[in-house]
Amino acid sequence: MNWGIFEGILSGVNKYSTAFGRIWLSLVFIFRVLVYLVTAERVWSDDHKDFDCNTRQPGCSNVCFDEFFPVSHVRLWALQLILVTCPSLLVVMHVAYRKAREKKYQEASGESGEHIYLDPGKKRGGLWWTYVCSLVFKAGVDTAFLYVFHSFYPQYTLPPVVKCNATPCGNIVDCFISKPSEKNIFTLFMVVTAAICILLNLVELTYLVGKRCRECRAVRRAHTTCLGHHLHWAASPCKQDDLLSGDLIFLGCYTPPPLLPDRPRDYVTRTVL
């Protein structure tokens, strides 16, 4: 399997990620993808060939192998890594869509200097929701696969000997798994790295939500302060002396709120007195 395309996808989304997201990307590539490509495929390459049972009953070894290994570790890990990296592709596509929309708007508006997005890669609006949903999806996928592994292989370990009495085996036979200790080591390693990735996704999700809540509170405080300032000014007896008929004034704060970067002029309310 060629993993170069996933490397390009994840390296492209790296510049749109937070510090926790960059750590997650490094962990996925170094401790999951590279370990999978370099070692895991080789360790499990001979699992069926070296699965021996102490019987010569035709078909018994194949049936017992299918009973204890319904899905190969390697194929489960490949599917897991593909699903985990797909949300990063959605983030890159969303940023590309915003850049194309901004470019088309600039071509249509000419030299007006207006923008739809001041920074298409900044996590605001729909891109913020896309990024948050990608974190939830990635954590959910890793959690689901950890549950599946635990269901197929209790405690994520393989015993050196398994007993099988499935048809067409005439009686209970002993079957021996090839290199169980080495396989257990790599299985536990992949499980631990997946758990760390889940933790990083949750930490990054908490960071983004907490940052958004702080920005919302800052905007509300700024609006409350500006409203109090205008009410105090309106009650002043000198207000008529300060204004002339037809003067244009701004009602609102001069500092744009951090939650409205895509349309920086929307927060300004103007009126003629």
From TrEMBL:
<dbReference type="InterPro" id="IPR013092">
    <property type="entry name" value="Connexin_N"/>
</dbReference>
<keyword id="KW-0965">Cell junction</keyword>
<comment type="function">
    <text>One gap junction consists of a cluster of closely packed pairs of transmembrane channels, the connexons, through which materials of low MW diffuse from one cell to a neighboring cell.</text>
</comment>
<feature type="transmembrane region" description="Helical">
    <location>
        <begin position="128"/>
        <end position="149"/>
    </location>
</feature>
<dbReference type="InterPro" id="IPR000500">
    <property type="entry name" value="Connexin"/>
</dbReference>
<feature type="domain" description="Connexin N-terminal">
    <location>
        <begin position="42"/>
        <end position="75"/>
    </location>
</feature>
<dbReference type="InterPro" id="IPR019570">
    <property type="entry name" value="Connexin_CCC"/>
</dbReference>
<dbReference type="GO" id="GO:0060707">
    <property type="term" value="P:trophoblast giant cell differentiation"/>
</dbReference>
<feature type="transmembrane region" description="Helical">
    <location>
        <begin position="185"/>
        <end position="210"/>
    </location>
</feature>
<dbReference type="GO" id="GO:0060713">
    <property type="term" value="P:labyrinthine layer morphogenesis"/>
</dbReference>
<dbReference type="Pfam" id="PF00029">
    <property type="entry name" value="Connexin"/>
</dbReference>
<dbReference type="GO" id="GO:0007267">
    <property type="term" value="P:cell-cell signaling"/>
</dbReference>
<keyword id="KW-0472">Membrane</keyword>
<dbReference type="InterPro" id="IPR002271">
    <property type="entry name" value="Connexin311"/>
</dbReference>
<keyword id="KW-0303">Gap junction</keyword>
<dbReference type="GO" id="GO:0005243">
    <property type="term" value="F:gap junction channel activity"/>
</dbReference>
<feature type="transmembrane region" description="Helical">
    <location>
        <begin position="77"/>
        <end position="97"/>
    </location>
</feature>
<feature type="domain" description="Connexin cysteine-rich">
    <location>
        <begin position="141"/>
        <end position="208"/>
    </location>
</feature>
<keyword id="KW-1133">Transmembrane helix</keyword>
<dbReference type="InterPro" id="IPR038359">
    <property type="entry name" value="Connexin_N_sf"/>
</dbReference>
<feature type="transmembrane region" description="Helical">
    <location>
        <begin position="20"/>
        <end position="39"/>
    </location>
</feature>
<dbReference type="GO" id="GO:0005922">
    <property type="term" value="C:connexin complex"/>
</dbReference>
<comment type="subunit">
    <text>A connexon is composed of a hexamer of connexins.</text>
</comment>
<keyword id="KW-0812">Transmembrane</keyword>
<dbReference type="InterPro" id="IPR017990">
    <property type="entry name" value="Connexin_CS"/>
</dbReference>
<protein>
    <recommendedName>
        <fullName>Gap junction protein</fullName>
    </recommendedName>
</protein>
<keyword id="KW-1003">Cell membrane</keyword>
<comment type="similarity">
    <text>Belongs to the connexin family.</text>
</comment>
